[in-house]
Amino acid sequence: VSKEQGRDSWRRFSTDLTAQARKRLDIVNGLRQAIEREELHLVFQPILATQSGRIQGAEALLRWQSPDGPVSPAVFIPIAEQSGAILPIGRWVFEQACATQARLHQRNDGQSPYLSVNLSTVQLNDERIVRDFAAIIEQTGADPNGLVLELTETSLFADVEKNLRVLRALADLGLRVAVDDFGTGYSSLLQLLRLPVSMIKIDREFIDGIDKHADARLIVSAIIKMGKALNKGLIAEGVENDAQLFELQALRCQWVQGFHLYRPMPEQALCEALTHERGAEAAEAKLYYVVY
Ligand code: C2E
Ligand code: MG
Ligand code: MG
Ligand code: MG
C-alpha cells in the first residue's frame, strides 16, 4: 500500500465518522424538540389469542416523523437513551397510551384490549417514574389493569436487585410487566421468579426459525413449557407466515403478534379492527386463518 493510498483511505474513514457523528447530533437535537413540534405519534400492533383469533391486546410503538423524514425507533431510541431525551419522551408515550386505553375502554363497554408500552431501562432507573405514572393514570382515567409495561430481558435482569423495588411499586399501581425479546439474554429461571413479571414475549429470532429449524422449535417449546410452569402468559413476536402460526398453535402458545396477523396501525384503525371483529362473520373469517 502506497503512502498516498493510505492517506486516501484514512480521509474516507474520517469523513464517514464525521458524517455519522453529525447525523447522531442531528437526531439528538431533533429529539429535543420532537414533542413540542408534534412530530411523535404512536401506532398499535394487535396481539391475538392463538386459539380464538381475537384481539386481546395491542403494543404501542413509537414513530418519529422528523423534518428530514421518518426515523426508525431502532435508530432513535438508543440515542434518546444516551442523551436522556428518553425520559420526557417515555413519559409522553405512556401518557398517550393511557389516553388511548381510556378511549378504547369507553368505546367498547369495558371489553377493550390491554395496551402494552415499551419501557427503557433508563426510565426504570429514574425514581420519579412511579409518581409520574400514577399521576398520568389518574389524569387520563386509564385502567392500570389494562396496561402492560414491556422491558427487554437484558434491561430487566441487568440489575435485579435495583429493579425489584421500582417494579414492585409499579405493580402496586396495578400495572403488569412483560419480558420483551425473551431468549436473547441469558436470564436464569431464578431471576424470572423473583421479579413481578406476568408475561413473556418470545423473541422474533426464534419464531423466525420455528417452521424451518428443529432447534428453534425446541427452544420455543422449552420457553413455553417453562413459562406455563411459572404461570406466565406467553406471546410469540414476529409471526410472519401460516407455517409459524401453525407451529405456535401446536405448541399451545397463548398469544401471537406479527405482520402475518396485523401490522402496527393508527388508533383509528385499531378501533375499526375491533368493531369489525365484533361482527360474528368477521370473527369467523379471522378464525379461518388462525384455527386449524
Ligand atoms: P419491540 O418492542 O420488540 O417491538 C417489536 C418490533 O417488531 C416493532 O418494530 C414491530 O413493528 C416489529 N414487528 C412486529 N411484527 C413483526 C414481524 O412479523 N416481522 C418483523 N420483521 N418485525 C415485526 P419497531 O416499531 O420498529 O420498534 C423497534 C423497537 O424499538 C421495539 O422493539 C422497541 O424495543 C423500541 N421501541 C419502539 N417504541 C418504543 C417506545 O415507545 N419506547 C421505547 N423505550 N422503545 C420503543
Ligand atoms: Mg416491545
Ligand atoms: Mg420485542
Ligand atoms: Mg425486539
TrEMBL record:
It comes from the Bacteria. Residues 24-278 form the EAL domain. Belongs to the leucine-binding protein family. This is Bacteriophytochrome cph2. The gene is cph2_14. The chain holds residues 672 to 963 of 1094 of the full protein.
